[in-house]
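Lab notes, practical 5.
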Amino acid sequence: MIPKSILAASAAIFLLALAALFLIHPAPEPEDRPLIGTVTRVVDGDTFDVVDVGRIRLAGIDCPEQGGAQGRAATEYARNQLDGRKVELAITGHDKYDRTVAHVYLLSPTGQKGAHFNKMIVAAGHAVIKDYPDTTAPEEWCPDLLRRYPVVPYVPGERMYELPDGYGKTPA
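Output from the prediction step:
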């Protein structure tokens, strides 16, 4: 039979080890909380880096690839709006490339939440609304844009090099 003092000491050591484990490996933060960070690099129209967060992919939209003029224009638009700017990220999950997928809001110099960048880049004619399986349904985040722009279906592996009809700037 084990003396009670040894059992009590063993239980205390176990509880201290368990507490230390939680201090070393805290519980993960919930995905739905907004994060605030500064954009350090724009990769393309729908992907950029945020300090202390990592690579961000805009939720629910798709920009043309950089190989064409529309892709370069989308990248330039994103760079002009985001580079060096503080943003608030409403995270919806992660994509197959382990990028953080988020709705992005521009912050004023005083930290006030401003324009929804995902909507801005569509309205500016540089992106389409796309119903990805790993993000919020378009009806939830952009019902106002759906009156003007159709949702482009998600096709795994498909890359877009030009905006489809109904998107982009209308010719003069």
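Observations recorded by the TA: The radius of gyration is 22 Å. The longest helix spans residues 4-24.
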